[in-house]
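Subgroup meeting minutes
Present: P.N., E.W., G.H.
Scribe: E.W.

1. P.N. recapped why we're keeping a running log of single-chain structure predictions: easier to compare across weeks, and new members can see raw inputs and outputs side by side.
2. G.H. added today's entry (98 aa).
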Amino acid sequence: MKYEPDYFGKHGFKSPRSKFLSIRTINVGQLDELVEALEAKGLLEERDGMPYVDLEALGYAKLLGRGQLRRPVLVRVKEFTEAAERKVLEAGGKILTD
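Output recorded in log:
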């Protein structure tokens, strides 16, 4: 207390898993809403007759399978789940990976 009177010690706990939870994800339902928003702003690109969305450029690393996709979309993403792949393919779209 003599040398650092404002030091009260460490408080709380930081989980070691927290550095792994920083991966940005998006669900298929959110992707559908994102396509509509980009289309309304006029920022949606078309490739092969389908809307093209580059999720990596938008800061997303993984596509998850919650929700529904109402139209075919060409999606570029680094990682995706089996459910997300199935839903995109059922809608008539494709997933591109690098």
